[in-house]
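Record minuted for everyone:
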Amino acid sequence: MAVEIRELECFLVLADELHFGRTAERLYLSQSRVSQLLQSLERRIGGPLFERTSRRVALTPLGKEFLTTLRPAYAALERVVESAREYAANAAGKLRIGFQGAANATVLNAVSDFQSRHPNCLIDVCELPLNDPFGALRRDGVDAAVVMLPVAEDDLVLGPVFSQQQQTLTVCSSHRLATRSSIDAEELAGETLIAIAGPAPGYWRQAQAPTQTPAGALIHRGPDVRTLQEGLSLIAAGRGAMLICRPTAERNGWNGIVNIPITGLPDSSLGLIWRRGEQTPTLKAFAHHLKTS
């Protein structure tokens, strides 16, 4: 006959307490249920495990022998369950992370730290198109994505936000502002900003290439691009300018292109996002490493 785990648990607690009332309290059961479990176990074994009187409860010789052999076996079973729980919590399997542009130091450090602490989980990374920050997530091509903010999608969750960086205006060396050491956002009035093509949502594209200064002056919309390299090519050709965060601008320096720090605009930021309702233990662990990197 198959042994019920609840019966064994009841026996072990009663062997500790030698009192039906305290055993019932510890197990959140009624005393009658404790008695039922014990009687069922005794029937399985074929003999009494406790001597019960109105004044005391004591182990029988059979109960003492059973307790001696059961304790290490039950402890081993608990270790098996705990090991499985830790395995799940410590992230096993594979985690697919997408990112826009080049993975920066924060992301790379998080990947390295996560991988060293969770060797059972393999992280795959892939680059996401500049003009489609959310598509890979929705197609289940990645489990999470590092994207430029803002994110206001009902079906996606925004996790850790990091890498807040000053924005720069990237222009060709012959541009009227190219010799400036810095500019204010209002000086974008009348300029042409190269835009990012769809399928990125409008609010996201507007944040990367606004059509108005903070005071409301008009900024002209330039040609649409799908990648950063396309945008840099158009900048070098004098077709317009782009707002690019300082580290990205410095990593992608081209001859004939100048990066000018700009004030009066929100910093560029990155965020980790995933599908709503799909925060696995693996993803939760990676988000923690990203937050603390």
